[in-house]
Amino acid sequence: MNFSSARQYFYQEIQQPDEHIDLVKAALYIAQEEYPQLDLEEYFNAFETMALELRERLPDSPYPLRIIQSINQYLYNDLGFGGNKADYYDPRNSFLNDVIERRLGIPITLALVYMEVSRRIDFPMLGVGMPGHFLIRPNIAEMEVFVDAFNDGEILFAQDCQERLSQMFQQPVELKPEYLATVSHRQLLARILTNLKFIYLKQQDLEKSLAAVERILLLFPGVSLELRDRGLIYYQLGYYPQAADDLQTYLEKVPDAEDSGAIRRLLAELGR
């Protein structure tokens, strides 16, 4: 499978209604641009096997906290999954195949593994886009329990989340409801791609960073900041007509943006 067909399959998958998007497939299509020979069936089977083994370990009582404890025991103790704290910005932490094989990931990809295994044992969980981190929670109304997939499935309550935020930002943080809002499948995939975008920008791998931005724009067409960033990457790569188109569109969308002066000067240089 080549680069273009992996992108095409990703595009086809995300055209469905959000709740019908298969996160495992979509995440593997993201990885397949990095690993063209990737055998997707191998990883589909890995999830089915994990779910099968986990079912045998579930408690007789259906209490949610006990089920979470069983999942944690299986994923973190038995299989050895864990957060890659030693090399957080390794791009392999964002590729689902690598996370499955290496048992290492970052909050978003470990959360995806946890969610997909949980779904297969009929214990659905939702992604929670807390600022600076990513959590999950059982899809049970009025149950405010959160799981930190990056930290061995640590169980958190709202007060714990507030304390975690205050620690991250090194100042008291008021816990607003939107900080614990659930995310859509598209938002989760965009967060994986955003991680890759910034990793590759830091590494000065502009082509791969561009590929990440392009797929974010497939998920959320016309997002102004992504159009700006794509335009700037195009400019650095020497794709000047494409750069000018994106930067012009960005200014039309947000004419009063803080960086509008710099973008106008760049457009003038490009003959716009």
Distance between the termini: 39 Å
Going by helix content, strand content and strand pairing, the class is: mainly alpha
What is the CATH topology assignment of the largest domain?
A: C8orf32 fold
Counted beta strands: 6
The largest sheet has its strands arranged as: 1-2
- Please state roughly what percent of the residues sit in beta strands, choosing from under 5%, 5-15%, 15-25%, 25-35%, 35-45% or over 45%: 5-15%
Summed up, the domain count is 2
Q: Using the 3D structure, state the CATH architecture of the largest domain.
A: Roll
Order of helices and strands: HHHHEHEHEEEEHHHHHH
| Poorly predicted runs of 5 or more residues | none
Mean pLDDT: 95
Number of helices: 12
Tell me, what is the CATH class of the largest domain? Alpha Beta
The main sheet comes to: 2 strands, parallel
Shape by Cα distribution: globular
Radius of gyration: 20 Å
Helix content: 55-70%
Pfam families: TPR_9, Transglut_core2
Organism: Tolypothrix tenuis PCC 7101
InterPro entries: SirB1_N (IPR032698), TPR-like_helical_dom_sf (IPR011990)
Domain Protein SirB1 N-terminal: 42-193
Overview of the structural elements:
This protein is mostly helical. The protein has two domains: about 140 residues, C8orf32 fold; about 50 residues, no CATH class. Helices cover about 60% and strands about 5% of the residues. It has twelve helices and six strands. The strands form three sheets. A two-stranded parallel ribbon has the order 1-2. The chain has a two-stranded antiparallel sheet with strand order 3-4. β3 and β4 form a beta hairpin. α1 runs antiparallel to α2. It starts with a helix and ends with a helix. The model has no long low-confidence stretch (mean pLDDT about 95).
